[in-house]
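Changelog-linked ticket: 2-O-methyl-1,6-di-O-phosphono-D-mannitol example.
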Amino acid sequence: MTGGGRGILAADESVRTMSARMKAEGVPASEAARRDYRELLLTAGGLAESVSGIILCDETFGQRLSDGRTFPEAARELGVLPGIKVDTGTTPLPGHDRALVTEGLDGLGARLASYAERGAAFAKWRAVFGVRSADTYTARANGHTLARYAALCQQHGIVPIVEPEVLCDGDHGLPACAETTHRVLGRLFEELDLAGVELTGIVLKPNFVTPGLAAPAVAPSAVAAATFEVLDGTVPPAVPGIAFLSGGHRTVDACAFLRELSAVPGRPWQVTFSFGRALVSDALHLWAGDAANAPRAQEALLRNCREAAEATR
Ligand code: 5MM
């Protein structure tokens, strides 16, 4: 999933998020439109050269391509492992202003068994933290749920992608992001250990350590150095692979961060991408709901995937 110069395509926007992104591009959102768009992404010719896995949401996982194959079946035939987002979203954490905790543990074992039977190779669960709202309790609460999710995945033979995302909205500097990311990852690995999660069988999906998007930017080499320092202090070498989210950064920036990080000597883990927006935003814009635009949209997707894959090499 994280080696061989390939990465993971995050195409698992919930129905609500995907519909909002379509509306922003002037595309009427419907189940059929979301299916057509995801089919366009998955069937871009040669996707598997730079993409090892695709994360789907429940709706897409159960849909069929126009040739009748289910998305997981088609993905495997195209050389791309199918994955499934299994969290059900976030809810406020009482007593902790603006903090969120991710839900979805109830009935998760049965859902994982069903996804495994239908071909899922891996799963994904995302916890989300604000730089200033992620206190120790918030980090621990989300770390605990991520650990329970990961343990359940391993029980069902599914690789868990463990995604603790520290948001980059805001005008904070790089040190604030580093401090919060360190706290979040530190608590997370304590919880994974307590839950008995086999670290050699997970993929970590963190944010890059960057200043807020509204703060002055720093050089990609500074992002890579800060990111490596935080990961080196928190992520055990037993973790085989780290696949970064793009977090709203421009494609060119996310790829530059990855390129610099790939060049850091002495890394114990493979590093790659699990970008969403940085890979697909151009394609959605170019497609705009018109099948005639599909080839140009697919070419834009492939260009971004190749750039990200190249950054890992
Ligand atoms: C693709 O978006 C994923 C699901 O988001 P919602 O549950 O809010 O619809 C999201 O988890 C995504 O996989 C990660 O945030 C990475 O995406 P970016 O765009 O940050 O690279």
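Closing comment: Example verified and attached. Residues 174-194 form the longest helix (21 residues). The CA atoms of residues 27 and 167 lie 27 Å apart.
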